[in-house]
Amino acid sequence: MNKPLVGACFVALLIGATAVPATAVSDERPAKPKAKAVDFAGTVALSNCSGSVVRVPDSKPGDPALVLSNGHCLEGGFPAPGQVIVDKPSSRSFTLLNASGGNAGTVRASKIAYGTMTDTDMSLYQLTSTYSDIETKYGIKALELNAARPEQGRKITVASGYWKKLYKCSIDGFAYRLKEGNWTWKDSVRYTPDCKTIGGTSGSPVIDDETGKVVAVNNTGNESGEECTDNNPCEVDENGKVTVREGINYAQQTYTLVPCVASGNKIDLSRAGCTLPKPSGVR
């Protein structure tokens, strides 16, 4: 994993086209939409990781805001394989960043709405503030989660609120299974080598440069070429073949979260289309 960081020594580091006559035939291809300028607005710094204030397409201004990070960034430590946390009280605070990476203010959680390291590596905190509260007080809008699966080859930015650093690369492909120590994740995003993420970038939103929407949450990388050990994840394909890619980093897709968010930003794991892992005993 892009290890969460502990200790004050680490914290201190931190279109106007010309009209063509109807009779003319043009062989020019339509221009692609201009890429959005990705910045730090809406990202947050945790005590040990990165994160972001996020919304789903149906979220309303008066809904309690949500903060996305990794399951391995939870204040209670790493969830065990198979463990799923829902609706657990939390008063964790987050430093909210503005577009330039400056500290805009502090927002606080009311609970861990969802957290796990099974199949994915994700945590979602519900805040005491609404989206409207945050926009009115700080002038910052939440980042939107893309409801569609990300595409190979797309240009992306990993925006770390902890380090106040933007990592830019592309989606190189997907790992059928990504195994690290005791944990296994499904359909993980693999970056091209340009995104050299490090400890503290865990939980950073992975933003599609063209749409400005969040498509994944940054979580790990193979640091020293070991096979399937802590901090050295390996890829396992459908036939069980293991591949080790030293120096390559990964993220967990977030489109799977969208169907699980009901009215009022309530996590409802029983909703149609929700495939996120559920606590034991819950169908």
Task: Please tell me about this protein's structure.
This protein is mainly beta and 283 residues long. The protein has 2 domains: 102 residues, Thrombin, subunit H (Beta Barrel), CATH 2.40.10; 99 residues, Thrombin, subunit H (Beta Barrel), CATH 2.40.10. Helices cover 5% and strands 38% of the residues. It contains 2 helices and 18 strands. The chain has a 6-stranded antiparallel barrel with strand order 1-2-3-7-6-5. It has a 6-stranded antiparallel barrel with strand order 9-10-11-16-13-12. A two-stranded antiparallel sheet has the order 17-18. The chain is globular. About 8% of the residues have low confidence.
Keyphrases for this structure?
single chain; 283 residues; mainly beta; Thrombin, subunit H; 2 domains; 6-stranded antiparallel β-barrel; 6-stranded antiparallel beta barrel; 2 helices; 18 strands; globular
